[in-house]
Amino acid sequence: MSGQTERDFETAIEAGLTSSGGYEKRGPADYDEGLALFPEDVTGFLKDSQPAKWAALEALLGPKTAATVLDSLAKELDLKGTLHVLRHGFKCYGKTFRMAWFRPNTRMNPEAAEHYAKNRLTIARQVGFTSVMKKADGPDANRHRRCIIDVTLAVNGIPVVTAELKNPLTGQRAADAMRQYAHERDERDLLFAFKKRALVHFALDPDEVWMTTRLRGKETHFLPFNRGNNHGAGNPPAEGNWKTHYLWDEVLKADSLLEILQRFMHLEAKEKQVKTDKGVRTVRKETMIFPRYHQLDAVRRLVAHAKAHGSGRNYLIQHSAGSGKSNSIAWLAHRLASLHDAQDEKVFHSVVVVTDRRVLDQQLQATIYQFEHKTGVVEKIDEDTQQLARALSQGTPIVITTIQKFPFISQALLTLEKKGSGVTIDTAGKRFAVIVDEAHSSQSGETATALRGMLNQHGIEAAIAAQLSDEEDDALSDDARAAVLRDALKRARQPNLSVFAFTATPKFKTKALFDEPGPSGTSPFHEYSMRQAIEEGFIMDVLANYTTYKRFFGLIKQVENDPDVPRKKAAKALARYLELHPVNIEQVVSVIVEHFRLYVMHELGGRAKAMVVTGSRLAAVRYKLAFDRYIKDQGYTGIRSLVAFSGTVEDPDDPGSSYTEVAMNEGLAESELPETFERDDYRVLLVAEKYQTGFDQPLLQTMYVVKRLAGVQAVQTLSRLNRIAPGKSRTFVLDFANEEDDIFQAFKPYYETTPVDENADPQRLSELQHRLLEWAIFTPADVTAFAEIWYSHKREHSASDHKKMNAALDVVVQRFAEREEEEREEFRGQLAAYRNLYAFLSQIIPYQDSDLERLYTFVRNLLAKLPPPGEGQGFVLDDEVALRFFRLQQMTEGYIDLAQGEAYPLKGPTDVGTGGVRDEPVALSSLIDTLNERFGTDFTEADQLFFDQIRASAESDENIAEAARANNYSNFAAYFDRMLDELFIARMEGNEEIFSRVMTDAEFRSTAHEHLAQEIFRRVREQA
Predict the structure, then answer these.
(1) Out of 206, 394, 832, 910, which residue is the most buried by the measure of CB atoms under 10 Å away?
(2) What is the pLDDT of residues 654-703, one digit of tens each?
(3) Residue 383 DSSP class
(4) Cα 219 to Cα 702: distance, rounded to the nearest angstrom
(5) What share of the chain is helix, strand, coil (3-state, %, to 5)?
(6) Do 427 and 455 meet the contact criterion of CB atoms below 8 Å apart?
(7) Rounded CA gap, 208 and 216, in Å?
(8) Residue 548 and residue 740 in contact, taking contact as beta carbons nearer than 8 Å
């Protein structure tokens, strides 16, 4: 293919679609401008596929039949739209005609296959019509334009796709085709009328493809429809072919386009309440959704793999924010619910969508209703666990629920039984697809185990029966042995269950559990990277304007003695002391407010918003109070704030105080906060562990971070800024707590590919089991005694059971308490390591060792029973230290470039857990010195003016002058040393850099002291 012109490009596309794509060729003369249809194809299709109905109409209407049918079709297209008519047909004289036949789910109905073969897909080049647009100038000014379309694709005579082609070798690219659509094509023309005829318009050249589903003149918005190249935007080279050949060789082929029309395209309608002068008005916005390439590719690959390989697979779909995940999940759920294998057997009997997002519930139901046009296909579990139990028992095709409901299904079944409306969830021979929205938050721990156990009850019970006869364990009853096996089997991968997990930020465990290999040979099964989403313009690059601030402070020891304190705990306590200190909060708030006023307020047409991320609930309270106080003191208007934190906060520095989110937000209900924050008068939201994930507010443009962030949490928190909005051209991050490199290392693994470290060795569990028993804090008999009660054959433990279990653990806790603190913490660390490693490995490796399962249950309960480290008291140093000085300085400003450097691989639970690092005692003063040095600066010699000011202040102080006159230099220098700090503190604002150095660097201070002492001594003596 070596075409040099657009016509050659056009010819190649036509040849591809007609030779192997299932299309027939049509000419411009076959198009009817008035109807915006290919009338011969419409009537030909109806006569061919529905001859009896056509004959009945012909008997009634005679020679007027064709014109009448075309008129009825045109009216229904205008009223209901192309997509609706293609899916559900139209009426003419009481008879319903189908306008498309879609591929049936199975081959069991030969008639359906015959109907499908009757479809007529056609390609017409250079279709022309007279537009409503008029020529602007020249001799033909004010005459209607003649509009000619490069390529028009039709289904049974109804145009569904148009395309404008360009070729860089003739000096034009896809961008020129987009401009052509925006400026020379008019939505008022019937072919381009939204919903009424063509549904999607492509602008393409040999390198790139762009698409839109609605022409709006200059407001027309095109989306990239490219495959991605090396984790970025664009398309990779294709050997012996154009880069964009996939559009006609794959996407627009007859079978593919018909499937897109049947199972992917849908009309998305959003309603919004808008306040006007005349009251509240409901604004409805409709968008025709055509899948982006990565969405189409992901769903089709997943469906094809599930069809070929059946259930029992775990898939990771690593799609960045901005990937359109909600639609991908809806399309996948709909396809899996009706998927049949090569033997025409259902691959899955039910699809369970696990999500915490309410918006996904509504979107999924609305989308699938358009495909099916019937209710009952989707059931949202929004009442209680009993509703979930009923939905699963009735075989509802698609069930939407939260993961938290599964552990309580057994109790729900019991409750329904007591009500006389008992149901059974029969999993015998049943297969389930579980689609997980945000994988790492939904597929860990006991809740996920409960889900697996519920959806494969029958298989697990059969496996228990087979294994019990092979096991010999006289220590436990048969019921207890069965219960141990049941718990162990529930953890493993279930053969009747496939899990499809979506996330942008997989953790190590996520990649290990969802291990179905993709094109790279490893997990993820499908990927759409953060880099591609940014380059394609679907999300903002939140690191493009990243400014870090550093806090320079000096802490002094207030107590006379110098107590030994644990290094790590004391360091945390000192950091907490600084974080909550009023001086720190006031300076940070002043920077935040002034930055917001100067750089943020006027962005997005004066509607930009900001979030302040604080490190604790108490910090959120104090920052909110300081923020509102500063705004009031400065007399600023138009910057109202809201705060978000859970529970009630009491401020230890304000005895008797009590703060709640609702009270601090002037009575605003917690559920109303997101909607209220949308209002133009609320501009800043201060948060503590809330709204840092899943919060979708496109007007959020700036983030102020006063909290340490790392790993996935850093990515998810800062990504609240990445939503696009009209007029949003940039974002800001002001970070008061983190280093640039820390943020780089957090984001880098999710920018392109996510590397992982080696997996844990299964033998480590046996090693840990041995180490735990070596302590002799518990014995195998203790484990067995606890297991016999825990695994008693009951749905719920009785009060007597709880009493016995506590008694069994109390003996172990007593032995634990008799050990030294270092030994206690090392033992506790090994317990936690065993718990975490078993919970992880048991999902990957089908352990057949009931000893390990029993020990896991014992360890999990023992950890909860052990007294917390340090007798449960947090380490506090507040009364022993004081803040001597504090200064905030901007350190870096610019772009964190994720394209550079290497990502550290994600780490898994590979260590055998020898406990935490021992906390060595150090003198409080030395720790403070270390911290002061760490946060101090390393400036060059200060300017002389500052020292002159210090000297002048000293000379004018009568006490210092008298000391210089009455003493020799040595005695005066000793006296002046005691006065020096006060002189510097009084002048700290004059040169904070030098002040910081003097306060933190003893050598520098000594040099400054000697210089000033000599100068003052000399000058006072000379003046005398």
Answers:
(1) 206
(2) 888 899 999 999 999 988 998 899 988 999 999 998 887 778 899 999 99
(3) S
(4) 26
(5) 45, 20, 35
(6) yes
(7) 22
(8) yes
